[in-house]
Specification:
The protein is of the alpha+beta class and 347 residues long. The chain contains eight helices and ten strands. It has four domains: 102 residues, no CATH class; 118 residues, Band 7 domain (Tetrahydropterin Synthase, Chain A); 74 residues; 44 residues, no CATH class. The protein is 53% helix and 18% strand. Strands 5, 6, 7 and 8 form a four-stranded antiparallel sheet that branches. Strands 1-3 form a two-stranded antiparallel sheet. A two-stranded antiparallel ribbon has the order 2-4. Helix 1 packs antiparallel against helix 2 and helix 4 packs antiparallel against helix 6. The longest helix has 74 residues. The termini are far apart.
Length: 347
């Protein structure tokens, strides 16, 4: 409890005491009882109550979050009807008969929202605006602001305590509508939302300063649309998702076709490489055979008995008689080997 409230309470109690004493005096006088001492005490109580009342009327305690504008009927103190300098926090003295209008200088929040329980006004209090392409949007916003403590007196002269509902609210709604009309709806809900918020904040800062308020922050809480546009947006999103899905399927098929082509190409390349390898191997084999035959031919030149020997060595050890056709090219003049083998041409 501050000292000003204490003096006001003391003054009230003093006047109750005075009225009580007066009642006692009247009662005793009615009964023709002596009242001289009580009257003297009553006069003293009256003087004390009057003095305390005058003091309490001149004491004002200003809270730290407040400023006080003194409205005075005394022309010698306030020719304009008010004192230019606002009262600052602490215990202050005024002339009895003057009135102090208190103003909060701490931060305040004003919210306009579609949600019933969120806004400063019950019900749907969102800001309805039109975009430059004619679409209707509903904007939820909060304004954090405070009274400029150096211009409290001017605010009192211009707005008194009406500034919240007659300045903050209509100014905000008007600026939001004006700025929103400069953007398309696609810009507001996507790429230009931050730009919209910045533009609104700058315009409101300027307007608030002109009216002795300080804008701390503008919070763009939400943007929603009419039911018709919400359905259109949903359908568009579904169409875009379907288009993306179709594009994905096409890309998938392309990748599958490319993969199949690469597999076929790999198989073809492998076949070619295998065929080339087989051809190279056969060529090497043929060259080796030719070289071997050349070597054999060079060896048996002038040595026919060697060929005959090779032929006979290939015969089995159990062969005694071998018949050959008359036109057989494999007739050799066999020597007598002592093996008892007789070769007779077939007739």
């Amino acid at each position: 409890m501050n000292i000003a409230v204490m003096f006001q309470g003391l003054a009230t109690l003093s006047w109750f005491a005075v009225f009580g004493i007066v009642f006692i005096i009247v009662t005793r006088a009615t009964k023709k009882q002596p009242t001289k001492g009580i009257v003297s005490f009553g006069i003293g109580a009256f003087i004390f109550a009057l003095a305390i009342s005058i003091i309490s009327a001149g004491i004002v305690f200003i809270e730290p979050q407040e400023r006080g504008v003194v409205v005075s009927p005394y022309s010698f103190r306030a020719p304009k009807g008010y004192i230019e300098e606002a009262l600052t926090p602490g215990l202050r003295w005024i002339v009895p008969g003057e009135n102090v209008k208190r103003y909060e200088i701490s931060r305040q929040t004003y919210t306009m929202s579609a949600a019933t329980s969120e806004g400063s006004i019950s019900g749907d209090d969102s800001i309805r605006a039109r975009t430059k392409d004619g679409q209707e949007v509903f904007i939820d916003a909060s304004i954090i602001y405070q009274v400029d403590d150096t211009k409290v007196t001017r605010l009192h002269i211009d707005w008194q305590d009406r500034y919240r509902n007659e300045l903050v609210r209509p100014t905000t709604r008007g600026i939001v509508r004006d700025i929103a009309s400069q953007y398309g709806i696609e810009e507001i809900v996507s790429s230009q939302r931050a730009s919209l918020e910045v533009a609104i904040t700058e315009a409101m800062e300027e307007k608030f300063l002109e009216n002795n308020l300080l804008l701390i922050d503008f919070v763009l809480r939400d943007i929603h649309f009419s039911a018709e546009y919400a359905v259109a947006v949903e359908q568009k999103q579904i169409a875009e998702q379907q288009a993306q899905q179709a594009k994905f399927v096409v890309e998938s098929k392309k990748q599958e076709a490319e993969q199949a082509r690469q597999i076929a190409q790999g198989q073809a390349d492998a076949t070619v490489i295998a065929a080339q390898g087989q051809a190279d191997a056969r060529l090497i084999e043929a060259e080796a055979e030719a070289a071997a035959l050349e070597l054999i031919n060079s060896v048996i030149q002038g040595k026919p008995d060697l060929l005959t020997y090779q032929y006979i060595s290939k015969l089995g050890p159990e062969i005694d008689v071998m018949l050959l056709p008359n036109d057989s090219p494999f007739l050799f003049p066999l020597p007598d080997t002592g093996t008892g083998v007789t070769v007779a041409p077939a007739q």
